[in-house]
Design a protein that fits this description.
The protein has 109 residues and is mainly alpha-helical. The chain has helices at 5-11, 52-59, 66-74, 76-79, 93-104. It is globular and about 35 Å long. Bound molecules: protoporphyrin IX containing FE. Residues 14-15, 17-19, 29-31, 33, 36, 41-42, 44, 50-51, 53-54, 69, 73, 83-87, 90, 99 line the site of protoporphyrin IX containing FE (HEM).
Amino acid sequence: EIGDAENGERIFRKCASCHQVGQGATHRVGPHLNGIFGRRAGTVDGYGKYSDGLLRAGNDGLIWSLEKLHAYLENPKYLVTGTRMNFAGLSDAQDRADVLAYLRQFSDN
Ligand code: HEM
């Protein structure tokens, strides 16, 4: 794994206004992010507020690999047309690698 999970925890503050992760995480503005690696986009149980765009991307086969997560976090609306994740993105590749190393601790895949 490339990326510094400890720094990633700090970067995750930019996500935490909308997402929770870890033990006891619940859906907020966005879905909780436990188990996100290897999951088909738009399929976290019980969230129920996905955009048509993200659901379509999942139906078309978008699986949250490390590579796809990098692309989504760099520019959400470029990877997923019509996503309602209103987040400018993380332009710094190391910041993305770090936050993804942090999130990976809460995924089996
Ligand atoms: C969706 C990660 C920041 C709101 C998602 C998904 C991921 C993700 C992986 C896809 C979930 C799935 O397919 O089940 C992150 C990370 C962030 C971040 C790592 C910080 C670097 C934010 C912020 C907001 C937000 C700041 C609110 C302003 C949402 C919403 C969705 C979403 C509403 C559902 C999108 C849709 O249905 O189109 N996020 N996010 N996220 N996120 Fe974020």
